[in-house]
């Protein structure tokens, strides 16, 4: 047991996260003194330069916040704009947005699980190092990731910053042939995703359970991506329009990203795949539920290191959902709805792979954006990441500095933090004085 | 191992999408990392090796005092420096702040502005150091990235066309969208994306930046004369992801003056 050690662990530029983050941990006489998880990604001021842009530009501009989850930005922005214009999309558009989101969840989850997070569990510096000993697993990961990208290319035109998304729908519908040709690819991907769940379940998970308030979008009839109320496992149930009445963003000195918490003193909250599994377990189809049981992912999972299991399971779910949509595909009369431009305020929260992404816009009667608010999953999770580390460090103080640092980095990566997003975020420092 | 060229990947102000494009080369990734020594790639690996590097791929634009210093060091440590993507080659979306008062921006986004350190302007890498090759796009194209890496491995010039998007439309038999009254920046935008926007029945929005010798003002005037676009929308069209690339910057300023004169 450790000792009355004095040490500082300082990581200036955290690896294997999207963007630039840092960590600072100071331990004095064997006690945790100070801990900060910060974001030093340069601020990019999106909310400011959205002002006086046309409402139609929001999906293309906000996509540029993040190259890893541009679909989430496009989905939250179009839903919020349609809310402002009180426009109703067609069932075809709704279905194709689900298909689109399946692609991004597969791509982003596999990128994180295989290329960024799995190396932590197995003690490799990177997936490139890991590939030498686990060639089949890395190869499977890359192939699954590619399927995610193929889905986004079919409906979005390209995988990074898709071009086929407009407020009110899509510019062009995919052809029947495109949707037919993806069916065998998805059938194969589904088997790979099942194998991948089983492999991820064999990883060693630190014994670390917490009592989380899990927040996500919930829909009674389906595993929610884009529509539904914001709920928690502790009884919260509000429409997206009540977001600002329920949550607040605060600006702390050590980070270029804003921190989020409940306004009522409820503290910080946890978003992302674990929150969705816990809050939306009943909406999973039977085969996904059975696979969850098989890999030990329960509906009350509280170990943040098991987020990689949740990502693997959601990947499996998404291959099945995309397959269903591809098989039922029919061409629409028109892939978008016509819009009447008028002044209004619109809200939406949709589920990015790493958690809920809230957009709010006020537009004028010419369709110009007058106010924009983008509250992103990583800033919402940022306070919880620090909270996890504050709990984790004292429990794992017996580890050497190197090992403690690595485990703390892994604990941060549990959240798949997307720092490019968060600045509208990360840099790790451990100090034992 | 010692003979493999050392590759470094750097990130400045950006969305990570161009780095991701390298990881998106799923079929080629393991061959690429087999052919080079990935010495610095923080997004993918905890292990970082010190310079000098044979090739540096640089993503992002320069927006903070720290970045302005770091790029000088990256140049010194790199034999060959390639800037990748619209942020690195044309300022990126964050260069929109060049048209505004930054203190207004900080006040809009952050409750405690004194915590924020930023430069007045977001600028391309070539404004700061000598760049050996620029790869365009928001995001860059996977095939073009592989071509650049391949060319550098074999010590030849990358084969990246500098003609307009129009040529790509012709090659894929896409009928011109302007025939149907849809405004398009294809005639003044560099090829490389595969002309995907016109193929999806929308106009090109210029994410690959200006082509070689574009006449952006002439295209803009023609779109206005044909009644395809309003002056305000035209300014916005030139002012997106390459707004600090000279041809698009000058055109947007030119038409902004028209708006002010008419307004």
3D structure, described in words:
By secondary structure, chain A is α+β, with helices and mostly antiparallel strands. Chain A has 14 helices and 14 strands. Chain A has helices spanning 46-49, 58-63, 70-84, 91-122, 127-131, 135-156, 176-200, 243-246, 273-280, 286-294, 307-327, 377-395, 401-413, 419-422; strands at residues 7-11, 21-28, 31-39, 165-166, 169-170, 215-218, 229-232, 237-238, 247-251, 258-262, 344-352, 355-363, 369-375, 428-432. In chain A, strands 1, 2, 3 and 14 form a 4-stranded mixed sheet that branches. In chain A, strands 6-7-8 form a 3-stranded antiparallel sheet, with helices on one face. In chain A, helix 3 runs antiparallel to helix 4 and helix 4 (91-122) packs antiparallel against helix 11 (307-327). Chain B folds into 2 domains: 6-153, Rossmann fold; 165-262, no CATH class. By secondary structure, chain B is of the alpha/beta class. In chain B, strand 3 (53-59), helix 3 (65-77) and strand 4 form a beta-alpha-beta unit. Chain B has a 5-stranded parallel sheet with strand order 2-1-3-4-5. The longest helix of chain B is centred in the last third of the chain and has 17 residues, at 246-262. Chain B has 11 helices and 5 strands. Chain B has helices spanning 17-23, 29-35, 65-77, 86-90, 102-109, 142-153, 165-171, 196-199, 216-225, 231-238, 246-262, and strands spanning 6-11, 37-40, 53-59, 78-84, 133-135. Classes of the chains: A alpha+beta (433), B alpha/beta (263). Chains A and B meet through helix 1, helix 4, helix 5, helix 6 and strand 9 of A and helix 1, helix 2, helix 5 and helix 8 of B.
């Amino acid at each position: 047991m450790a000792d009355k050690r004095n040490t500082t662990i300082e990581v200036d530029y955290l690896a294997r996260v999207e963007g630039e983050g840092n960590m600072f941990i100071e331990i004095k006489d064997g006690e945790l003194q100070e801990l900060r998880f910060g974001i030093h990604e340069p601020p990019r001021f999106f909310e400011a330069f959205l002002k006086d842009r046309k409402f139609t530009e929001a999906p293309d501009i906000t996509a540029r916040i993040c190259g890893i989850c541009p679909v989430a930005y496009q989905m939250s922005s179009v839903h919020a704009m349609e809310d402002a214009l009180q426009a109703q999309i067609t069932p075809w558009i709704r279905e194709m947005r689900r298909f689109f989101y399946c692609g991004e969840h597969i791509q982003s989850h596999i990128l994180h699980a295989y290329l960024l997070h799995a190396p932590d569990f197995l003690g490799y510096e990177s997936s490139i190092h890991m590939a030498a000993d686990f060639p089949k697993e890395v190869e499977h990961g890359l192939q699954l990731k590619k399927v995610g990208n193929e889905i986004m290319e079919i409906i979005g035109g390209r995988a990074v910053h898709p071009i086929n998304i407009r407020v009110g729908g899509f510019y062009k519908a995919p052809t029947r042939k495109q949707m037919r040709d993806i069916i065998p690819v998805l059938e194969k991907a589904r088997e790979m995703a099942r194998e991948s769940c089983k492999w991820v379940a064999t990883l060693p998970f630190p014994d670390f359970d917490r009592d989380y308030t899990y927040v996500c979008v919930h829909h009674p009839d389906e595993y929610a991506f884009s529509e539904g109320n914001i709920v928690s496992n502790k009884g919260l149930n509000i429409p997206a329009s009540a977001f600002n009445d329920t949550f607040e963003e605060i600006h702390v000195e050590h980070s270029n990203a804003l921190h989020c918490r409940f306004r009522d003193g409820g503290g910080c909250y946890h978003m992302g795949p674990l929150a969705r599994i816990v809050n939306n377990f009943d909406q999973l189809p039977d085969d996904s539920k059975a696979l969850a049981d098989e890999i030990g992912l329960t509906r009350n999972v509280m170990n943040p290191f098991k987020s990689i299991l949740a990502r693997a399971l959601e990947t499996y779910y998404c291959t099945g959902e995309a397959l269903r949509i591809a098989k039922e595909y029919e061409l629409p009369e028109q892939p978008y709805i016509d819009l009447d431009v008028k002044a209004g305020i619109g809200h939406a929260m949709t589920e990015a792979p790493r958690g809920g992404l809230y957009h709010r816009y006020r537009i004028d009667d010419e369709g110009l954006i007058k106010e924009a608010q983008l509250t992103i999953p990583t800033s919402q999770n940022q306070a919880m990441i620090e909270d996890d580390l504050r709990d984790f460090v004292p429990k794992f103080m017996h580890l050497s500095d190197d090992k403690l640092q690595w485990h703390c980095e892994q604990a941060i990566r549990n959240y798949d933090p997307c720092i490019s997003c968060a600045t509208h975020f990360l840099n790790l420092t451990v100090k034992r004085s | 191992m010692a003979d493999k060229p050392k590759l470094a990947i750097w990130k400045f102000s950006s969305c990570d999408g161009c780095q991701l494009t390298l990881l998106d080369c799923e079929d080629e990734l393991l061959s690429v990392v087999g052919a080079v020594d990935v010495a610095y790639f923080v997004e993918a690996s905890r292990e970082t090796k010190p310079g000098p590097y044979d090739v540096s791929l640089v993503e992002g634009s320069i927006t903070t005092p720290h970045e302005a210093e770091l790029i000088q060091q990256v140049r010194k440590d790199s034999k060959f420096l390639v800037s990748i993507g619209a942020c690195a080659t044309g300022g990126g979306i964050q260069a929109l702040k060049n048209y505004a008062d930054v203190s207004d921006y900080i006040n809009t986004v952050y409750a405690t502005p004194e915590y924020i350190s930023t430069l007045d302007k977001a600028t391309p890498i070539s404004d700061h150091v000598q760049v050996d090759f620029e790869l365009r796009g928001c995001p860059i194209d996977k095939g073009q990235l592989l071509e650049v890496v391949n060319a550098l491995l074999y010590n030849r010039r990358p084969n990246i066309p500098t003609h307009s998007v129009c040529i790509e439309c012709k090659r894929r038999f896409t009928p011109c969208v302007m025939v149907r009254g849809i405004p398009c920046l294809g005639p003044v935008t560099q090829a490389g994306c595969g002309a995907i926007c016109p193929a999806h029945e929308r106009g090109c929005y210029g994410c690959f930046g200006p082509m070689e010798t574009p006449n952006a003002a002439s295209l803009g005037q023609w779109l206005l004369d044909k009644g395809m676009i309003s002056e305000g929308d035209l300014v916005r069209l030139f002012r997106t992801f390459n707004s600090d690339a000279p041809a698009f910057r000058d055109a947007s300023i030119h038409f902004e003056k028209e708006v002010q004169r008419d307004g």
